[in-house]
Amino acid sequence: MMNDLIEDSLEIIIGYLNPTELVQLRAINKKFRTEYDSVYKRTWQVHIAKKWDIPTELVRKTLGKLSAECFKSLFPLCKPIVGRIYFDDREISLSKSESSAHYLGKVGESNRSIQGNVPFPRRRSKSTKQTSIIFSSINSVFASAYGMMNRIICTALPSETCLDENQFSGYSVPFALNSDNDTPKLYIKPRMVAYYEVEILSSNAQEGGETPRALECVAVGLATAAFMKNKRLPGWDNESYGYHGDDGAIFHGRGRQLAEFGPRFSRGDVVGCGLHCEKHTIFYTLNGKLLGNAFTDVPEELELFPTVGIDSNGIVHLNFGMEPFRFDLVSYLENDCA
């Protein structure tokens, strides 16, 4: 009872330490290293949750069996998950979860887009000595902990996984995996691919069988912060890239169609958009199937946000990873490593 009280008080106290101070405390205090490992672990879970911008309880529920050292080594690679949507059009209605948007105005009269609040991570520099130390630490920790991770988190993964330096030049952003029970599973291993999906739904007024008008269009892509959300669809300037549902074409720069790319899409479809940071490509999926690369030679320095153009009265639901994706992203990542 007394020990529980001590641990609770200690957890509150060290909760004020930043990650660097937490590492220093662990290094100089033998008693803290040997007797209060659970406190150390729970504090790292708080730091990880803050960097991912997800609830701490979700981290503890899904990743609670990983060691404190594993959390410490993972921390430098963590990047926040996209969690909210921003827009400039007054006629767009946002759901309470801030993950679905509905345009209530007249279709075909103007253009507008919505954008995620967090950009996709860019490739991490590998040039510093500190980064090399991080790689070495993570490789060591993940190599020893991989068996546990595979059982707890990534049970659907092949038995062998790339754990080389190139993978860890990436970042860790969690995404949900399908689970056979009520216990959620998160994929947390560092990767070089950012991805999100857009599901196009009918509104309540459209559930009676009304067919979409031919001029309706949802455009899925990526854009910089300079992209004019209140006037354009993604792909209609040099600040954006887009795949458009009304004609199945891809666009980038001056609103001109670059090429026919894939099938048309509309209500009932799920469109995915991914950025491969190492290969500098943007790829798309449709209803769980890979369509391939739409854009190559994407400038490495660009900071790109998930962006969806809406010239439709259908509801668009954006999934940034807190729900299982329709596309098998895990297999894509594993095959990319092979």
The span between the termini is: 51 Å
- Helix and strand run: HHHHHHEEEEHEEEEEEEEEEEEH
CATH top level assignment of the largest domain? Mainly Beta
Low-confidence stretches: 126-167
pLDDT average, as an integer? Answer: 81
Sheet-strand content, in percent, reads: 15-25%
Radius of gyration equals 22 Å
The amount of helix comes to 25-40%
DSSP strand tally: 16
CATH hierarchy: architecture of the largest domain? Sandwich
Shape type: elongated
What is this entry, summarized?
The chain is about 30% helix and about 25% strand.
Descriptive account of the structure:
- This protein has about 350 residues and is an alpha+beta fold.
- It has two domains: about 1-65; about 85-120 and about 190-335, Jelly Rolls (Sandwich), CATH 2.60.120.920.
- It has helices at about 1-15, 20-30, 30-35, 35-50, 55-65, 70-75, 130-150, 330-335; strands spanning about 85, 90-95, 100-105, 115, 175, 185, 195-200, 215-225, 240-245, 250, 255-260, 270-275, 280-285, 290-295, 305-310, 315-320.
- It has a seven-stranded antiparallel beta sheet, with no helix packed on it. Strands 2-3-16-7-12-13-14 form a seven-stranded antiparallel beta sheet, with no helix packed on it. A two-stranded antiparallel ribbon has the order 5-6.
- Helix 1 runs parallel beside helix 4, helix 4 (about 35-50) runs parallel beside helix 6 (about 70-75) and helix 6 (about 70-75) crosses helix 7 (about 130-150).
- The longest helix is centred in the middle third of the chain and has 24 residues, at about 130-150.
- About 40% of the residues are buried.
